Amino acid sequence: MPIADLAQRLREFARERDWEQFHSPKNLAISISVEAAELLELFQWSRGQDDWECMNDDAIRASTAEELADILLYLVRFADKAGIDLERAALHKLERNAAKYPAEKFWGSDRKYEA
Amino acid sequence: MPIADLAQRLREFARERDWEQFHSPKNLAISISVEAAELLELFQWSRGQDDWECMNDDAIRASTAEELADILLYLVRFADKAGIDLERAALHKLERNAAKYPAEKFWGSDRKYEA
Amino acid sequence: MPIADLAQRLREFARERDWEQFHSPKNLAISISVEAAELLELFQWSRGQDDWECMNDDAIRASTAEELADILLYLVRFADKAGIDLERAALHKLERNAAKYPAEKFWGSDRKYEA
Amino acid sequence: MPIADLAQRLREFARERDWEQFHSPKNLAISISVEAAELLELFQWSRGQDDWECMNDDAIRASTAEELADILLYLVRFADKAGIDLERAALHKLERNAAKYPAEKFWGSDRKYEA
């Protein structure tokens, strides 16, 4: 289901429950952060530090899929309320990142993330 | 650009820079949380508490679009590395939410979020 | 119980369980973020937007106290492992904030938080 | 400077700038999360994954101290506004954790964090 269709479904979902009133920028931004932290919590200690093997565990995999879904749903809802084209914004950002981090200069280096 | 294409582009992006090594579940989950907090920071005090008018401000709108894009890019990257179909997971979650919060029972109420 | 004593207690707590191995900067920073999001979740929708009346609810008050405690414990643990004097750092930051935001210039304004 | 004195200083700081109006539970909880994510960002990729050596770098150490301070200041401010004794809440939680995770049963194990 493409993002535009998800946005439409979420619009109906909110309308059917009269939840539009709760969907301010502040509240939806909070929701995205809260769901992102629930994903992060799955990898709080040893798990997922070095590789993706933990995804072979069915319970971890299901929890991960659910948290990713929660984040996406709030993200799509936020963009829809804000009138922002999420896919276009992502593509635009990807292009800027490509220009900012030329492959030959940043090969194997995470120094880009340094202040 | 659909999610599947974004995932493909991000895969190439990481490969070209030898950044695969940094993309563990833990690190990508951290990145999603960090970007979510940057979105949240835009609405830290008065802004965006009651309505979406702040989106008429070009600078706020551009910053919002950029943070939404950052979150989506890391989200798509995480799902791709994990082998999780993000759109299917979102649709699945949406259906479970619809069953969990019947419209007539949760009309205008945010009590679902109570412990 | 002063912060120095809490740090000492947490040191013993980790040693007695052989949990030192999990207490890397990355993992403890994750823990602080995860607990901060659990606090935030209490105020995800309508609650606590305008005033502090919600603190009269015993259940909310107890949950809030517990989340604040969790954040403080990980914060104290992080500072202790890093060899940073938390109280001195806080006082130092408070003094810099006072210089950065002169009262007469920032009276009643949250524009300091604008980009 | 003990927590009670920090709380007193923060009270004056807010009053002198008429910032009380911004200090709702929701906004202060957002601030704690935002600052926690700024700490986390310092350890987003390779840094601080395995040990505390990164703290020997003066710039990292100073940034870390500043982020820890920011979190503590908002935490103390939140507890003060809520009328919660932060140190007592922390001690109480520490005692509950000791009961919940008996040393002999959780020796060297992070499975407590599993669902």
Verbal overview:
The structure is a homotetramer of 115-residue chains. Chain A has 115 residues and is an all-alpha fold. Chain A is 66% helix and 0% strand. The first copy, chain A, is built from five helices and no strands. Chains A and B meet through helix 1, helix 2, helix 3 and helix 4 of A and helix 1, helix 2, helix 3 and helix 4 of B.
Short note summarizing the structure:
Helix content of chain A is 66%, strand content 0%. The first copy, chain A, is built from five helices and no strands.
Defining traits:
homotetramer, mainly alpha, 5 helices
Topology (elements, then pairings):
The structure is a homotetramer of 115-residue chains.
Chain A: H1 3-17, H2 25-41, H3 58-82, H4 86-100, H5 103-106
Question: How would the global form of chain A be characterised?
Answer: globular
Q: Kindly state the number of beta strands of chain A.
A: 0
User: Which series of helices and strands of chain A comes N to C?
Assistant: HHHHH
Assembly category: homotetramer
Distance between the termini of chain A: 38 Å
Helicity level of chain A? 55-70%
As a percent range, the share of strand residues of chain A is under 5%
Give a short account of the largest sheet of chain A.
Answer: none
Arithmetic mean of pLDDT of chain A: 95
Largest interface: A-B, 69 and 69 residues
What structural class do helix, strand and pairing data of chain A support? Answer: mainly alpha
Number of alpha- plus pi-helical segments of chain A: 5
Rg of chain A, nearest Å: 18 Å
